[in-house]
Structures are given as C-alpha cells and as structure tokens.
C-alpha cells in the first residue's frame, strides 16, 4: 500500500532534508536536460539552498509534500515580491497531482497577499510545468555556476485579483 502524502507549510526543521531533495531532483530529473558537468556544478549549490532556507525562513512562504514517514518529496517557496525561488520535487511526484497541489497552495497565498505577478527562473525540466500554469517566457538566460554555463528561463505570470469588486 503506498504511503499517503501531505502538503503542509514548511518548518525550519525541514532544512536537513532539503539538500537530499535538491540533489535527487537534479540528478534524477534535471539530468535529462543538462550535461553531467552542469548537474555537478548545480548540485554543489545544495548548501546554498539550505542556507537561504534557514536564514530567510521568515521572509518566505514555503510548502512541502511529505510522506507519512516524514520523507520530503517536494518543496516550493514564494518570496513576498511574487518570486518563486525554489521548486524541487523527487521523481516519484513529478507530473503528479502532488506538485499541482503544492503549486495551488502557493497560488492561494499569492492571492491572499495581493501579489499581482509571479516570477521564476525555470530550468529546462520545470519550464513545461510553469507554462501549463500560464507562465510566459520573458527571456532565456545563461547562468554561470563556477566555470559551467547552463540555461534557464525567466518566466512571469500576471495574477488576477480575486478580491471583492467595488
């Protein structure tokens, strides 16, 4: 019987699991789109991801998908200016309702905060997901990680106000 999965707000105690989640997402998903050298350079940034999570915890709204045994399967966050900085998932939940539910939590929060536009830098692996949610590419970017270049896409999505009309 498969484990049940819960979507919940991230907690500071989730920090220890984030580098492993990040690494799995890169090596098992993004590796279909990027070279081994690009993945290795990107993966070396896992401590940065954990550091940002820990030091900027209060400045972000973040959610995780978690199994009943406490294993994190996905993570997404939203900065108050509408930027989605991190969105990573393990292969067992990509292209499933889990990632859509996680993103829907973020959308509800964005509307609640009155955010009028979402933005992100989407990898080749994530670009299609964001396009399905109505994000548009504003431009392709070359990103240098150490001495390795990889590309991603600057994407935006305007949000329609769901507040009461006057």
Q: Describe the global form.
A: globular
Helix content: 25-40%
Low-confidence residue ranges: none
Order of helices and strands: EHHHEEEEHEHEE
How many helix segments? 5
- Oligomer category: single chain
Question: What can be said about the biggest beta sheet?
Answer: 4 strands, antiparallel
CATH fold-type name of the domain at 5-118: Aminopeptidase
The total strand number stands at 8
Write a brief structural summary.
The protein is 33% helix and 32% strand. The protein has a domain of 114 residues: Gcn5-related N-acetyltransferase (GNAT) (Aminopeptidase, 3-Layer(aba) Sandwich).
Walk me through the structure.
The longest helix has 16 residues, at 97-112. The protein has a four-stranded antiparallel β-sheet with strand order 1-2-3-5, sandwiched between helices. The mean pLDDT is 91. It has helices at residues 18-28, 36-43, 46-55, 97-112, 124-132, and strands at residues 5-9, 60-67, 72-79, 83-84, 87-89, 117-122, 136-145, 148-158. It has a domain at 5-118: Aminopeptidase, CATH 3.40.630. The protein is globular, with a radius of gyration of 16 Å. The protein has 166 residues and is α+β, with helices and mostly antiparallel strands. It has five helices and eight strands; from the N terminus they run E-H-H-H-E-E-E-E-H-E-H-E-E. A hairpin with a 2-residue loop joins strand 7 and strand 8.
